[in-house]
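Figure 6 in text form: structure in, sequence out.
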């Protein structure tokens, strides 16, 4: 401590140097620096003795096999369906235009009376995302006017074959949920419906 002050003393106050600061200023500086080091080390030591929390991946329960994510985690994309089970994507290409990596490829097709895929005029016949290039920025999700594309929590995407990283619509489209059973109605409700 005194060595530092002595060095400081030779540096300040000499020819070409500013005047030496008062001794209490030097002492306060040393006290403040020491307090900062003690505060920092106390956090390090406190955390060092906390129990380690380990996610039991890949042997845990659930679809993510024990991995846990924040809700906002951006994983593999999902193509959503509406409440009628139709695809939400209307092939407007806005996501592809917003993508800075140019990794979305879409081919549009028209819905017909016989075959209806989405609720609008068009649907995406082909919808590919090349995960060799995707940077998970989320711009496509923000650009989509129908909330058709979202980020899921899928993260096990690594592959030694780059071709496997080109995901097709079938890989991302959410399944049609089974119809929910009707709730039992009371006799009064039934009478209202039948009246
Ligand atoms: S997350 Fe970003 S890089 Fe990936 S497909 Fe969407 S816009 Fe493109
Ligand atoms: S995912 Fe959304 S933005 Fe992209 S083509 Fe479909 S509707 Fe348009």
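Output sequence:
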């Amino acid at each position: 401590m005194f060595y530092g002050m002595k060095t400081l003393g030779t540096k300040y106050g000499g020819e070409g140097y500013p005047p030496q600061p008062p001794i209490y200023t030097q002492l306060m500086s040393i006290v403040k620096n020491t307090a900062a080091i003690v505060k920092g080390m106390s956090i390090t030591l406190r955390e060092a003795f906390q129990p380690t929390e380990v996610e039991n991946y890949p042997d845990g329960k659930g679809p993510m096999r024990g991995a846990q994510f924040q809700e906002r985690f951006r994983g593999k994309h999902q193509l959503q369906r509406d409440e009628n089970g139709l695809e939400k994507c209307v092939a407007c290409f806005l996501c592809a235009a917003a993508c800075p990596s140019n990794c979305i490829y879409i081919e549009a097709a028209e819905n017909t009376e016989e075959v209806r895929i989405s609720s609008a005029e068009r649907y995406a016949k082909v919808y590919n995302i090349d995960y060799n290039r995707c940077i998970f920025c989320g711009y496509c999700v923000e650009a989509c006017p129908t909330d058709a594309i979202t980020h899921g929590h899928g993260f096990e995407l690594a592959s030694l074959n780059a071709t496997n990283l080109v995901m097709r619509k079938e890989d991302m489209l959410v399944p049609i949920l089974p119809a929910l059973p009707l709730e039992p109605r009371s006799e009064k409700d039934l009478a209202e419906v039948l009246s």
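Caption detail: Residues 1-9 have pLDDT under 50 and may be disordered.
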